[in-house]
From TrEMBL:
<dbReference type="GO" id="GO:0016746">
    <property type="term" value="F:acyltransferase activity"/>
</dbReference>
<dbReference type="InterPro" id="IPR011141">
    <property type="entry name" value="Polyketide_synthase_type-III"/>
</dbReference>
<dbReference type="InterPro" id="IPR012328">
    <property type="entry name" value="Chalcone/stilbene_synt_C"/>
</dbReference>
<keyword id="KW-0012">Acyltransferase</keyword>
<dbReference type="InterPro" id="IPR001099">
    <property type="entry name" value="Chalcone/stilbene_synt_N"/>
</dbReference>
<feature type="domain" description="Chalcone/stilbene synthase N-terminal">
    <location>
        <begin position="9"/>
        <end position="219"/>
    </location>
</feature>
<keyword id="KW-0808">Transferase</keyword>
<feature type="domain" description="Chalcone/stilbene synthase C-terminal">
    <location>
        <begin position="235"/>
        <end position="366"/>
    </location>
</feature>
<protein>
    <submittedName>
        <fullName>Alpha-pyrone synthesis polyketide synthase-like Pks18</fullName>
        <ecNumber>2.3.1.-</ecNumber>
    </submittedName>
</protein>
<dbReference type="Pfam" id="PF00195">
    <property type="entry name" value="Chal_sti_synt_N"/>
</dbReference>
<dbReference type="Pfam" id="PF02797">
    <property type="entry name" value="Chal_sti_synt_C"/>
</dbReference>
């Protein structure tokens, strides 16, 4: 990095989840009851729910906590009772903005950033759409300037949260006085399908709802306990175009998620990571988007990662499930909490996420610890 280049960092992170809690064991039991006429599917559902690494998820839809007989999203329902795409989008429109507001306000507060400083708003979501969109609603309800540059990233899948961070890094790199607010909101559980197919049951086993936000800007000595950002890297991996498919159907969005994705990532991730590291040391920190337990397992095995290097990813998967684009900021928040609690020094690493395509998004991260003010004067490495 040139000495004249700004030090760009995530200055504050905020997360939020809906009020309704989905216990994994209870959800699997109720779903199996809905599959009583399909014993093979019921056995598959019980197994995948138990093995996917999730204990708890959250949902904005209280009907998903009802019994199998009353839940409109579970198998066994008349087609007339299953929520239509229009119904699901109405719930999305009602629930997405308040959740995004909560995460955004927490990020602004933690980063000690005034609303008047925000020059760009990047909103991210692939689980719903409406116009005027979430970006316009957030500008008005947060009280951002009417002239803020709004950039909606829609329908880009799980990798979009990290794509937004990379885009923000480039914006601030070109204009160091800019500050970018990123807000990711995903209501994945709205798209659970009343299907008996293995693909649909696999998708239903680990997706959850959540929102995350962060502020990206040029950092100074007053910013501690942050992640400084290197340049982003994006690559379309070969062979995965049909392995992660997300299409609009009459009863919500239809997801096809191949169980071969971890294997494909294992085949093709080495090259982009080698190019990204560019001959440097293997990253110490690994902020992996937990698209599923298999992805974490694959990367852990490939690169010989220690348990502590993937703990934050597995913790988020266990406690929240996969919240699509919002998840990576949950992982970074959890990683920062762990690093702070054990008094870690400065450490370098990588954040990575995968999405439809098969897309791989990467960005270098450097954890800068919280240190006493007097240490800032003594240690020129942190000034």
């Amino acid at each position: 990095m040139n000495e004249a280049d700004p030090i760009i960092a995530i200055l504050g992170i905020g997360t939020a989840v809906p009020d309704y809690r989905l216990d994994q064991a209870d959800t699997a039991r109720r779903l199996a009851e809905g599959l009583v006429d399909h014993p093979d599917s019921a056995r598959w559902a019980k197994r995948i729910f138990k093995q996917c690494g999730v204990d708890v998820r959250y949902t904005c839809e209280p009907n998903l906590l009802e019994s199998a007989e009353q839940c409109r999203y579970f198998p066994g329902k008349s087609a007339k009772l299953v929520p239509s795409t229009a119904e699901r989008m109405a719930v999305y429109k009602r629930e997405s903005v308040p959740l995004g507001l909560k995460a955004a306000r927490r990020a602004l507060s933690e980063g000690n950033v005034d609303l008047s400083e925000i020059t760009h708003l990047i909103t991210v979501s692939c689980t719903g759409q409406f116009l005027p969109g979430m970006d316009a609603a957030l500008v008005r309800q947060l009280g951002l300037a009417a002239t803020v540059n709004r950039i909606p990233l829609t329908f880009l899948g799980c990798a979009a949260g990290l794509k937004a961070v990379g885009l923000a890094q480039q914006i601030v790199g070109s204009h160091p006085s800019d500050k970018v607010l990123i807000v990711c909101v995903e209501l994945c559980t709205l798209h659970i399908q009343p299907s008996t197919t293995r693909e649909a049951l696999f998708g239903a086993s680990f997706f959850g709802d959540g929102a995350s936000a962060c502020i990206v800007g040029a950092s100074g000595p007053e910013h501690r306990g942050i992640f400084q950002l290197g340049k982003p890297y994006s690559m379309l991996l070969p062979g995965g175009a049909e392995e992660m498919v997300w299409e609009v159907g009459n009863n919500g969005f239809d997801l096809y998620l191949s169980t071969s994705i971890p294997k494909l990532i294992g085949q093709f991730i080495a090259e982009p990571l080698e190019q990204f590291v560019d001959g440097g040391e293997k990253p110490k920190l690994w902020a992996i988007h937990p698209g599923g337990k298999g992805i974490i397992d694959t990367l852990e095995d490939m690169f010989g990662l220690a348990e502590e290097q993937t703990r934050s990813c597995r913790t988020v998967l266990r406690d929240y499930g996969n919240m699509s684009s919002a998840t990576i900021l949950f992982v970074l928040d959890e990683m920062r909490r762990e690093l702070t609690s054990r008094g870690s020094g400065r450490a370098s690493g990588v954040a990575l996420a995968f999405g439809p395509g098969l897309t791989c998004e990467l960005i270098q991260i450097d954890y800068v610890p919280t240190v006493p003010l007097q240490a800032l004067v003594r240690d020129e490495a942190y000034v």
